[in-house]
Design a protein that fits this description.
Layout (H helix, E strand, L loop, with lengths): L10 E6 L1 E2 L11 E2 L2 H20 L6 E6 L7 H12 L9 E6 L6 H9 L4 E7 L3 H6 L8 H11 L2 E8 L6 H13 L4 E6 L7 H4 L7 H17 L3 E4 L2 E3 L6 H7 L5 E3 L4 E4 L2 E4 L4 H5 L6 E4 L2 H12 L6 E2 H8 L3 H4 L5 H5 L3 E4 L2 E4 L1 H5 L1 H8 L1
Parallel strand pairs: 1-4, 1-11, 2-3, 4-5, 5-6, 6-7, 7-8
Antiparallel strand pairs: 8-10, 9-10, 12-13, 13-14, 15-17, 16-17
Helix pairs in contact: 1-2, 2-3, 6-8
Bound molecules: S-adenosylmethionine (SAM) and iron/sulfur cluster.
């Protein structure tokens, strides 16, 4: 039996699965851009959005991700954003994010984003080094300083994504990327270690991830550098200046419910987690084909830990007790002690959280506990 109570759903994710070119490391649900597909896709999304509008939904956080949302035309974006705007809960301190790639972002789109209520943007820069960008099929010349200056005219809450461990990247290159980020004077950065997943072109080509020691050295370099510049790591891969943490992503890490629309998107509407099928043709034909997973009480506890331990803040013991009507230490006795003894997990002021070292070893810890 499940004991978690149904709550109001505050968050909406919308997936745009198109990209102008395909990066060899990427295994997200995405397709090379074709206008005719984009047009049909936006129409299908509007059908889904109309259902939410008819159901009087209002969201505190909305995230349009991809793929590359910024590769939609102004016409398609206008149509889509007009509907999404009706779903913003303007009575809250809402956050509405859109993802963009540097080469498909221009002032007209930014103007449109602002008028649609978008107040946060996440730009996938990956690296500032053009040679390294070429290895990931990104062949463009961008003046990032000018780009961010233009973005700031419309949206002040900006994130950039960087990847480390890309082909040809050494520690000096990584530090150059970080220094370039600081020069942009923005308040949030996500840094990911390159993972070579089986569905990616890099995998097929036999490209290998950097080894554990180097990955660790890069990670420590990033942590040290960003902390010195006033950033807090509030999640394994996410750093922000105080007050600029992503509210939408915190929904996931707090293990709260959200609705996911679009091809390959997932959602959590208690007591189900669901994943939309990733087949574009089916979606364009109006099929959603949700794969639903009923969440048991035990699953719930596992998801709770998987999500909450990613955050620097961890979780309150009281929250666990209220949700599950049992005590965390009773549920995980015999498994948790070794991590407490080794200072990988810390309990302080009734809060359970990972130490710096624990966050780095989180996958290992979770494997043992779960
Ligand atoms: C889903 S992508 C979409 C964002 C956007 N299309 C872009 O490329 O910038 C979100 C971020 O995930 C990261 N990412 C995607 N695949 C990755 C991989 N295999 N290894 C590390 N980071 C990855 C990239 O930093 C990317 O910006
Ligand atoms: S990383 Fe972004 S631009 Fe590259 S293929 Fe994936 S979703 Fe598309």
């Amino acid at each position: 039996m499940n004991t978690k109570k149904k709550t109001k759903i505050n968050s909406l994710y919308i997936h745009i699965p198109f990209c102008d070119s395909i990066c060899p490391y990427c295994d997200f649900t995405k397709f090379i851009s074709k206008d005719i597909f984009k047009f049909g896709y936006v129409n299908q999304l509007i059908r889904d959005l109309n259902e939410l509008i008819a159901g009087n939904y209002k969201f505190k956080t909305i995230y349009i991700g991809g793929g590359t949302p910024s590769c939609l035309s102004i016409k398609d974006l206008t149509k889509l954003l007009k509907k999404v705007k009706l779903l913003i809960n303007f009575n809250t301190n809402y956050e509405f994010t859109i993802e963009a790639n540097p080469e498909s972002l221009d002032e007209n789109k930014l103007r449109l984003f602002k008028s649609a209520g978008i107040n946060r943007i996440s730009i996938g820069i990956q690296s500032f080094n053009e040679k390294i960008l070429e290895t990931i099929n990104r062949n463009y010349h961008i003046n990032y300083f000018n780009l961010i200056k233009t973005v700031k005219k419309y949206i002040n809450n900006i994130n950039i994504d960087l990847i480390y461990g890309l082909p040809g990247q050494n520690k000096d290159e990584l530090l150059k990327d970080l220094n370039n980020f600081i020069k942009l004077d923005i308040n949030h950065i996500s840094t990911y270690s390159l993972s070579v997943n089986p569905m990616s072109i890099f995998y097929v080509k036999g490209y290998k991830e950097i080894d554990e020691d180097l990955s660790r050295e890069f990670y420590d370099t990033i942590l040290d550098f960003l902390r010195k510049h006033g950033f807090e790591r509030y999640e394994v891969s996410n750093f922000a200046k105080p007050g600029y943490e992503s509210k939408h992503n915190l929904t996931y890490w707090n293990d709260e419910e959200y609705i996911g629309l679009g091809v390959g998107a997932s959602g959590y509407i208690y007591p189900y987690r669901y994943k939309n099928y990733s087949n574009l043709t089916s979606y364009l034909q109006g099929k959603r084909n949700l794969e639903k997973e009923l969440i048991t009480k035990n699953d719930n506890k596992i998801y709770f830990l998987l999500c909450n331990l990613r955050k620097k803040q961890g979780f309150l013991l009281k929250t666990y007790e209220i949700l599950f009507k049992t005590r965390f230490f009773d549920d995980f006795s015999g498994k948790i002690e070794i991590f407490l003894e080794n200072n990988l997990i810390i309990v302080e002021n009734n809060r359970v959280f990972c130490s710096d070292e624990g966050l780095i070893k989180l996958d290992l810890i979770l494997k043992e506990i779960i």
